[in-house]
Amino acid sequence: MITRTLLAVSIFAVTAFVAIDDARADDPSFIAVGAGAYDWNRQKEEGAEFRLEYRSGDKYWELKPMLALAGTSTGQGFIGAGVLMDIYFGRRFVVTPSFAPHLYFGGNDDLDLDYPLEFRSQLEAAYRFDDRSRIGIAVSHYSNASLGDTNPGTESAMLYYAVPIDKIFGN
């Protein structure tokens, strides 16, 4: 049973990979805006998180650079840069894992992430429209990788909308 399942998943992955060459070929740079729940898992200081990201269309070994700025309704903020990878399932569905070190500021007695350097890992699943814009949901985790005295970490659940930059500036 496990062998058949692995075989089916492998065939699906190869088929999806072959079918996505056209989808990957015309991927532009994006401006992405996100909003969602901050600290929804640990619930030490729940609030809203708002994100603005630049996602480059340039690829380096399938990895794309990204820049991010985030703030929370609880007075915490993040500025970061990292990499992402778009993985297509057909022309419409895109899964995007990303990793980005962030400078962290804010914090209080309820929730302090305990170090100015936090690492955000995220997994996003999105639907791609004909104009290449995307709407998606994402879950992310912030961690200081035990660089601080403590490593409380926190999670965010976000709704994203990503617009190709050429749509914004009319190129």
Question: Which SSEs are present, and which pair or pack?
Answer:
Layout lengths: L1 H18 L1 H5 L4 E9 L8 E9 L8 E9 L4 E8 L2 E3 L3 E13 L11 E12 L5 E10 L10 E11 H5 L2
Antiparallel strand pairs: 1-2, 1-9, 2-3, 3-4, 4-6, 5-6, 6-7, 7-8, 8-9
Structure description:
- The chain has a single domain, classed as Porin (Beta Barrel), CATH 2.40.160.20.
- The chain contains three helices and nine strands; from the N terminus they run ααβββββββββα.
- Helix content is 16%, strand content 49%.
- With 171 residues, the chain is an alpha+beta fold.
- Mean pLDDT is 85; it is low at 3-10.
- The chain has an eight-stranded antiparallel β-barrel.
Short recap of the structure:
With 171 residues, the chain is of the alpha+beta class. It contains 3 helices and 9 strands, in the order H-H-E-E-E-E-E-E-E-E-E-H.
List keywords for this structure.
171 residues; alpha+beta; Porin; eight-stranded antiparallel β-barrel; 3 helices; elongated; disordered N terminus
